[in-house]
Amino acid sequence: MGALIKMTPELDLSFDVVVIGAGIAGLSVALSLPPTLRIAIISRSFTVTSSHWAKGGVAAACKHGDEPAEHLRDTIEAGGGLNDPDQVALLVGAAPEAIDFLQRQGVDFEVKPEREAGHSQPRIWHADGDATGGAIMRALSTRQREAPNLTEIEGSLIEILNDDNGVVGIMIAHRGSLVLVRSPRVVLASGGATGLWSDHTSPNSNLGNGIVNAYRVGASVADLEFTQFHPTAIALSTSPLSLATEALRGAGAWIVDDEGKRFLFEADPAGELATRDKVARIMYRHPGQAYLDPRPIGRENLERRFPTFVQDCRQRGHDPVLHGPVPIRPAAHYTIGGVLTGSYGETSVPGLYAIGECASTGVHGANRLASNSLLEGVVFGRRAADHLVDVSRTLHGVYYPGSVDLPTRAPTRASLTHLVDGALGIERNASAISSATERLVNASSTVEMGPCNAWELTLASELISMMLIAARERSGTVGSHTRSDERPEDPNYRLTFVKGSTLRREVRPK
Ligand SMILES: Cc1cc2nc3c(=O)[nH]c(=O)nc-3n(C[C@H](O)[C@H](O)[C@H](O)COP(=O)(O)OP(=O)(O)OC[C@H]3O[C@@H](n4cnc5c(N)ncnc54)[C@H](O)[C@@H]3O)c2cc1C
Question: What is the CA(49)–ligand 1 centre distance, in A?
Fold first, then answer.
């Protein structure tokens, strides 16, 4: 049984472009479009996004002695060779311009870039020490509020609407009503899905609903088996877990066990400077509690360069300056797969774009290199803006559903989390995946709840089912996807879902 919800006609809205999401990707596209366009930015939140919480920084090879070609090499090395090399070349080539764009919006980057794990050069640009995301979002939000052509609407995406010619708008839940927002161009910038795991670093609302909505109107989605687990989430609270930025390891912090031993070197010669996937896997396999020991950085340096880390720990009852090692554990951190896009963020549905963490541009391969994500949001946001203005699209006819049918039963969030933790954690295997797949089918429509809540969890279940298929099909270990029952065949494909069918798309071998 579903709930038939009446539309609110007096709130029927119309815009040249609709952007869903107010993180770095959404605001970069909105601020890069011509001021003559009427643009709606629709988001669940304008202040709580992964972008606001980003700590490390933005990667860009724009200092003497570093080259985009080296940034490209590091990105593909970290991605296990499954990256799309043309897309990576676009990303790293446009990185200096992205930094320039952010500076023009008012971001005050520090004078010298720093080095981080996986990067062969110091190329991570910080602002406000280890609160770079907050500094960037303050600047972008100020610009957004100053722009008279940008309208801010708080709301949740319910559905993307399309006809035979492509998108025609979206349906949102807004202050207890359903509202139709018409537009010939819809940009999805709704972030990732890491809130599906019990241990995560992103806002709890990151459930990947945007990705499923795009799939439901025919967009292809890809690489859903790849979720990055960050090794150094601070284990002093429940989720969302605060993050000990990668830059701490870059600055010299150690990862140690209960006895103070730096155990990473037993498995990887790069030790603390190995990429996230490797460090997370080694920690997962090492018995006992792991700690981040910041003392090698030095007290003065720690307080000056990592004030957010120090404050986060102190707020949770542990002073890292006075007492040293901080308990850490890996947590779901970044959704690598998503809506499959071309080099301008365009999807397979005319008028629908996807940018930022909800997109699968192919730049990250099987494991994202640190600090490439904020960069991706800006670079592909700006490219999507260029494409949007070049492609003319108009709406024909006036589609107006008088009411919408939403479910009122769905699995509970706790049951979904439990299932995801068991089958889609750092190490996966066929038997856990197939038992989770069965349980997911049986869990559908189990609990009575409000229609918007039920819809959100129904979409989350659909995403989990696609993630399970992707994880089952990739029988080898690569990047962030570790199969404990590894069969080493077919390591070199990307799995692409097209509505109604599943197909494999070959990429170039390593
Ligand atoms: C703690 C932390 C630290 C990080 N540090 C770094 C770093 O140092 N460098 C780096 O490059 N990357 C970092 N990352 C990753 C990076 O921050 C994100 O990948 C990036 O900010 C994603 O940007 P986005 O604009 O795509 O999405 P987000 O910033 O997640 O924004 C998504 C937006 O969509 C809205 N939304 C979501 N679902 C819906 C819906 N159904 N309806 C309407 N609106 C919706 C949200 O409210 C939000 O406004 C970090 C991530 C975390 C969590």
Answer: 5
Q: Does residue 140 share a domain with residue 78?
A: yes
CB of 135 shorter than 6 A to ligand 1: no
Residue 123: CB within 6 Å of ligand 1? no
Q: Which of 160, 353, 374 to mutate to test the pocket of ligand 1 (most atoms within 8 A of CB)?
A: 374
Q: Please indicate, yes or no, if residue 395 is contained in any of the structural domains.
A: no
Q: Mean pLDDT across the stretch 15-30?
A: 97
Residue 351 CB less than 6 A away from ligand 1: no
Whether residue 19 is contained in a domain is answered as yes
Q: Are residues 234 and 185 in the same domain?
A: no
- In this predicted model, what pLDDT tens digit does every residue of 103-134 receive, in sequence order? 999 999 999 998 888 899 999 999 998 899 99
Choose, from 44, 182, 276, 281, the residue flagged as catalytic.
276
The reply to whether 316 belongs to the active site is no
Which domain does 195 fall in, by range? 2-226+336-390
Q: Are 127 and 186 members of one domain?
A: yes
Within 13 A of 371's CA, how many CA atoms are on the CB side? 34
Strands 427-428 and 482-483 turn out to be parallel
The finding on whether 55 has its CB within 6 A of some atom of ligand 1 is: yes
The CATH number of the domain where 374 resides is what?
A: 3.50.50.60
For 287-323, the pLDDT digits (tens) are 999 999 999 999 999 999 999 999 999 999 999 999 9
209 Cβ closer than 6 Å to some ligand 1 atom: yes
Q: Once rounded to an integer, what is the mean pLDDT over residues 427-433?
A: 96
Query: Is residue 350 helix, strand or coil?
Result: coil
CA–centroid distance for 81 within its chain: 20
> Phi and psi dihedrals of 12, rounded to 5?
-70, 120
* 351 shares its domain with 416: no
Q: Which of 113-117, 160-164, 230-234 has the highest mean pLDDT?
A: 230-234
Do 191 and 246 belong to one domain? Answer: no
Quote the ligand 1 centre to 381 CA distance (angstroms): 13
How many C-beta atoms surround the C-beta of residue 190 within 10 A? 36
User: How far is C-alpha 197 from the geometric centre of its chain's CA atoms?
Assistant: 14
On whether both 237 and 222 belong to a single domain, the answer is: no
Question: Which amino acid residue places its CA nearest to atom 31 of ligand 1?
Answer: 23
Total domains present in the chain: 3
